Amino acid sequence: MVPHLATALTGPLLDLEKKILDATPAIERWFRLEWQEHTPPFYCSVDLRNAGYKLAPVDTNLFPGGFNNLASEMLPLTVQAAMAAIDKYCPDARNLLLIPETQAQSRNPTYLQNVARLMQIFRQTGLHVRLGSLSPDVTQPTPLALPDGNMLVVEPLVRSANGRRLGLVDFDPCTILLNNDLSSGIPSILENIHEQSLLPPVHAGWALRRKSNHLKAFDEVAKKFGKLIDIDPWLVNPLHAKVSEVDLEHDQGTEELADAVSSLLSKIKKKYKEYGMKEQKPFVIVKPDAGTYGMGIMTIKDASEVRDLSLKQRAKMSVVKDGLAVTDLIVQEGVPTFEKIDDAVAEPVVYMIDRYVVGGFYRVHGERGIDQNLNAPGSQYVPLAFAQQHAVPDLKAKPGTAAPNRFYVYGVVARLGLLAASLEMERTDPNPEVY
Amino acid sequence: MVPHLATALTGPLLDLEKKILDATPAIERWFRLEWQEHTPPFYCSVDLRNAGYKLAPVDTNLFPGGFNNLASEMLPLTVQAAMAAIDKYCPDARNLLLIPETQAQSRNPTYLQNVARLMQIFRQTGLHVRLGSLSPDVTQPTPLALPDGNMLVVEPLVRSANGRRLGLVDFDPCTILLNNDLSSGIPSILENIHEQSLLPPVHAGWALRRKSNHLKAFDEVAKKFGKLIDIDPWLVNPLHAKVSEVDLEHDQGTEELADAVSSLLSKIKKKYKEYGMKEQKPFVIVKPDAGTYGMGIMTIKDASEVRDLSLKQRAKMSVVKDGLAVTDLIVQEGVPTFEKIDDAVAEPVVYMIDRYVVGGFYRVHGERGIDQNLNAPGSQYVPLAFAQQHAVPDLKAKPGTAAPNRFYVYGVVARLGLLAASLEMERTDPNPEVY
What we know:
10 helices; homodimer; 6-stranded mixed sheet; 3 domains; alpha+beta; Rossmann fold; globular; 18 strands; Dna Ligase, domain 1; 30% helix; 6-stranded antiparallel sheet
């Protein structure tokens, strides 16, 4: 199920954690049955926020970078899960083509380490792995230096003579793995690929993907989960609303956004009241419905802040990754993070391949508050290593828990995000007949 | 594919190891394709012998004990593989019934630790796990003390009111996992179970299973594998012959056995000559075609030894586990072991769940020679832990190898045994329509 990792939190289990741990057999069975009906994304990372009173995913990434931030002890688990995934899509695979981000090539050595780690994982499943570039600048094999002195080589993509397959000059892959979220649109070279497994599918990319579809699916998943273990789904699900056609830079939709913020803040306040949290100050996060890369995300505590946004702030909300313009916005209940590492605010990020939790890390930011987005320049990463309690089986413990696995709870909530992503992908598939 | 574990061998890779590592992508693809056609046993352990010049399975156990001998770091990998296995047989499982050995209950605390470890593994997949006993003496829940002070409880098995299901008084399992090799026959309470998954199937038990069927299947697997990576299959496959209806105690079949030994010794000698090993002394292992528990196994270097067996030795060959009489014998090429731990002779044992290698250990025996069976009183177990090389990706290494994973080679040969067991189970299934 979920590896037993050491979390930043210590001390007694919170109520929600206890409830989830107690329901382990029911939860695992439910996931097994859901995966009979739905196909998990090939890989996925989920950013969580643990507020103590609630624990919820705040971002579900279908093109996870950051595999290099997982503890190296996680590698065998990751390779095994990758093996299961490859098995499903392309058992006769010899070759895997990995398509990384283009912009990141030159400017982000950390991202390149993620690419190197992904190559290592898939090589260890026994595949030949090479890198193809979506960048028009890559017209021949191009070396990219890794911080450790090793080299990656990206190569130009080519379509086969009959136009039906995608590969490299002398490399015909069975599986094409995107680690590029397609924020700048779907390149024509990725179109009409039917003979090979293109994973994740192009509609998982931000050219087409919308957070609102994910959140809608997550509402359903959280509701089912709440019923399953008899909790208020709000405990794992932030409230949210969508505001369409906003262009803050040209003052279009500002009022609608302010109203939505105001309405969501009241709803959160009501929830806080219901749970007797009189001191808790509600806040919301405003972010584009289409992809971001940690850009264009605002923390807002009062609707008036929307009206008072400076021109600079407005401009910031209008430009997201690769120049994609913001039109629709999501207003999401802010979940403060309860966890700290060395006094710096921290949020857990859980990594999954296929249906399996393969590891996690804390994203830590020394300059940010408990109510702010931590996926921003200056963030650091603390890998989670195995907790050593598992060495001594405690047979008197509740079934499934042994020594209580706090990280298990994170793995469960992350998998709720994974399941929602699976529903989202099914429902937004432009060619649903393939399911 | 196979975790990167630290083996006892150090120094440069042997030729066979190199050949296997170089062929990693082809081998992994081949296994993936074979598992599309054949169902791996639920779990399996394979005893290997590494002679330097050859590396071969010498025993394939379908009811592995000894999960407690795996390093505790292996637990997450084992749980993930168990999850994949449960998924396949019974995704809606809530309950798993584990049926351990009966004799071992009172007399073998080490075996009980294996049972405790298995319970821990399956609890961590999110199942309720309880123990059912095949012993008629267990008429009520019976506590069994573990060496660490914890308790296991075995309970009497019951059939449901309509007779169709097997469980405990208030426990209806979806999966029934046998960790009892049924040497003493198939108890009637295990018969006609069609609504639940009984794993492994009863024909995997020594009441019905015969080594000769396994070896026949292994011959085919080794042949295919040899072709795949262009090696002489003999390098992974000991020569063998079967001698039927032998009763040494009553001097029946002694001559036939001596002839078979003599003939196999010449064949081995010829092979040694072919490989230029003039100094190598051939020997054979004689063992019952039906199950053993490390008993009734002889090392023989000359056919005359068969004729000169003492009455005591003859009697030993006639009694194997739970009083099953020996009639058919297997004569198998002896593979000396090349590996030592602290001057004691050692052989690797590889553990698998479903198609996944989940760990291994060395069986070590200080009192035995390199040409003797080590599965005997006095043997000790050295868990294999993860090698730490994987922390540093070596991108210039051959695909799939990174830092050369010596244990990978063991994992490959062990999986050849796993695949042979899968073919064997298919072919010996008394109700083949279920495939």
